[in-house]
Write a structure and sequence with these properties.
With 373 residues, the chain is of the alpha/beta class. The chain folds into 2 domains: 9-44 and 280-372, Aspartate Aminotransferase, domain 1 (Alpha-Beta Complex); 47-276, Type I PLP-dependent aspartate aminotransferase-like (Major domain) (Aspartate Aminotransferase, domain 2, 3-Layer(aba) Sandwich). It has 13 helices and 12 strands. The chain has helices at residues 20-30, 47-53, 69-83, 99-113, 129-136, 159-162, 183-193, 229-232, 247-259, 266-276, 280-302, 325-336, 361-372, and strands spanning 34-35, 93-96, 119-123, 140-144, 165-171, 196-200, 223-228, 241-245, 315-319, 338-339, 341-342, 352-356. The strands form 3 sheets. It has a 7-stranded mixed beta sheet with strand order 2-8-7-6-5-3-4, sandwiched between helices. Strands 9-12-11 form a 3-stranded antiparallel beta sheet, with helices on one face. Strands 1-10 form a two-stranded parallel sheet. The mean pLDDT is 96. The structure holds pyridoxal-5'-phosphate. Pyridoxal-5'-phosphate binds next to helix 4.
């Protein structure tokens, strides 16, 4: 638990910078690095999306911070298609400059709205920006236990923390472990405790276990879902996503964010509309990630790790032999040039590593060959 404003805040080292030594080792051994540490897509967006970036004529004026109506309509249409939810583009959606800024800044904005609450709840094994956002807001960052399938354990939330909470983060399919949460239970917990539930659903289209789930399938009261084009459309470099849900909260956030100048560039909004409108490229991408995850399984098992296919997402969460994640990370760099992230980047799991299946399939095949030599 962190309570930051008692002492000056010193940003922690950026996790992926800590892997430079391993990158150096792989580079020295193989002359190149197969970097499976960061979840950055390497495949291209569709040509139509790239073309739209240069033909929108939206460079010279200021686009709306909340997103053009066309942007919000495209996002709502996509949500309806993938999750069968009916969202009003006029009142229930706002644009984000990639979902990370929303994760990092929203607790601060929520605290300004509700200063009597001072606690941010998030899964104990999670994408690190939930904790950082809590710290930026001056709130207490309180991790919530996860169960043996890496799902958030709502029963483990201390009622004293619930009564102080501004929001609860859930992330399903989850990064790093690929868990699939019960989002109906999360929405009900939030309503029962009068705590806003923020549901990070950026991997929704890479759900392998069962149907695609959104918290919005349980109504919009007291919940927001957060989505991104970064992963589904290989558009992380352009920065486009949105939040959707409770109209009162959407209204508040859209007003604050407008004052803060948080705006997706006009040409990016135009290109995003094209990306939201196309499903074919996502089907292709799903197959690509499944193939890469299968190779990753073989690679990690060959290195002695215990690992299964995730319920969703494009990461493998592997338990290291001898429970030593740094030793496994070093072995992979040394034997096949692959860089993975030690589990400590995502919470207190020093016995795990995270493998992101984001490198070209041919490179992963090469890594597997090296491993068997
Ligand atoms: C769980 C989760 N949320 C949010 C993000 C941020 O993505 P972006 O800011 O590109 O939308 C990531 C990126 O890896 C993620 O894994």
């Amino acid at each position: 638990m962190t309570h930051p404003y008692e002492t000056p805040y010193i940003p922690p080292p950026y996790p992926y910078d800590l892997l430079d030594e391993l990158r150096g080792l792989a580079q020295e051994r193989f002359g190149s690095v197969i970097d499976c540490s960061i979840g950055a897509p390497v495949d291209p967006p569709t040509p139509a999306v790239v073309a739209a970036l240069s033909t929108s004529n939206l460079e010279r004026g200021y686009p709306p911070s909340v997103g053009t109506l066309e942007y919000r309509q495209a996002a709502a249409g996509w949500l309806d298609r993938v999750a069968n939810v009916d969202i009003d583009p006029a009142t229930q959606i706002g644009a984000v400059v990639g979902s990370k800024e929303f994760v990092a800044l929203t607790p601060h904005f929520l605290r300004m709205r509700r200063p009597d609450r001072d606690t941010i709840l998030y899964p104990e094994v999670a994408y690190p920006s939930y904790e950082q956002g809590a710290i930026f807001s001056g709130c207490r960052a309180v991790p919530v236990a996860v169960d043996e399938k890496w799902r958030i354990d709502l029963d483990a939330i201390d009622p004293a923390d619930a009564s102080r909470a501004l929001c609860l983060w859930v992330n399903s399919p989850g990064n790093p472990a690929g868990g699939i949460d019960d989002l109906e239970a999360a929405a009900a917990w939030g309503r029962a405790n009068n705590v806003l539930v923020l549901s990070d659903e950026c991997y929704i289209e890479f759900t392998w276990d069962g149907p695609r789930r959104s918290i919005l399938q349980n109504g919009v009261d007291g919940v927001l879902a957060v989505h991104s084009l970064s992963k589904r459309s290989n558009f992380a470099g352009a920065r486009a996503g949105f939040y959707a849900g409770d109209p009162e909260v959407v209204h508040y956030l859209k007003e604050v964010r407008k004052h803060g100048g948080l705006i997706i560039p006009g040409p990016v909004q135009a290109a995003a509309i094209v990306a939201f409108g196309d499903q074919t490229h996502v089907e292709v991408q799903r197959d690509v990630y499944l193939q890469r995850l299968e190779i990753g399984l073989k690679l990690l098992r060959a290195a002695g790790a215990t690992v299964e296919m995730p319920g969703g997402g494009f990461y493998l969460w592997a338990q290291a032999p001898d429970h030593d994640s740094w030793a496994l990370a070093r072995t992979l760099a040394d034997r096949c040039g692959v860089i993975v992230s030690p589990g400590e980047f995502y919470g207190d799991r020093t016995d795990y590593v995270r493998f992101a299946a984001v490198q070209p399939t041919a490179d992963l095949h090469l890594a597997l060959e090296r491993m068997h030599n």
